[in-house]
Amino acid sequence: MQILCPICHMPLMHQDHQAVCHNGHSFDYASSGYLNLFLSQKKAHGDNKEMIQARSAFLNSGAYGFLRDALVKEVQQYHPHTFLDLACGEGYYTQKIPVKEKYGIDLSKDALKHAAKQDASTQYLLSSIFDLPFADQCADMILTCFAPFAREEVERLLVPGGHFVFVTPGPDHLIEMKQVLYDHPYRNIIKPLDTSLALIDQKMISDTFCVSADLMQALFAMTPYAYRTGARGKEKLVQAGSFPLTAQFVIRIYQKQPEEQL
What we know:
The protein is of the alpha/beta class. 27% of the residues lie in helices and 26% in strands. It contains 8 helices and 11 strands. The chain has helices at 49-59, 65-78, 109-118, 151-157, 175-181, 213-221, 225-228, 231-240; strands spanning 13-15, 18-20, 26-28, 35-36, 82-86, 101-106, 123-126, 139-145, 158-169, 198-209, 245-255. Strands 4-7-6-5-8-9-11-10 form an 8-stranded mixed sheet, with helices on both faces. A 3-stranded antiparallel sheet has the order 1-2-3, with no helix packed on it. The mean pLDDT is 93.
């Protein structure tokens, strides 16, 4: 799979510590190994260092290891040669995917720094998942975990017959935490994707885990609840300490129709 210049869309070549195209545009590889292709003069968005540290501490506990194992099995049954992880974060899922040619894309420099240091099997790129530096129909499989669906790019990049794996929290994901935080806890709604891709499989997986009070706070920090919860709810969670939690995920597999069927 060829990485393209985000300015002129010519192929990029690796030269020393840069990626350079024939038109002279150059982009730097960070010392950790990821390639910065973010064009905006504004500071790249994405999770900061503290958020990455909290998420890594929680994930290293193994609580979501069953999801990573499930994703590995899903990938293995389709035998892709080229793989993209959109909004890959610190690479917790990406690094275990058994594909020789892998790319992880995110807008957090701190996340990619962590990912690239831990995983030499994947080329990590700082770029928006809504404007990706790849040619049409270049990927056999694309994964998005807990991030928005970049419809146009996913449909553009998949080869005919290629697969898209979309992971979202299940209806009762972390319901016990919600019961502590809110007077009226809500279930997650699984919305259908607006896409031309065909849904060929859907499954829900779940497990129960218990972590320390410190890791409970790390988990809370990596959820949307951290932004939606008032001081009273946060204090209730601190006082609750550690308690069993349900992890529940929906894994949906979509396929791009062969061209003769379009």
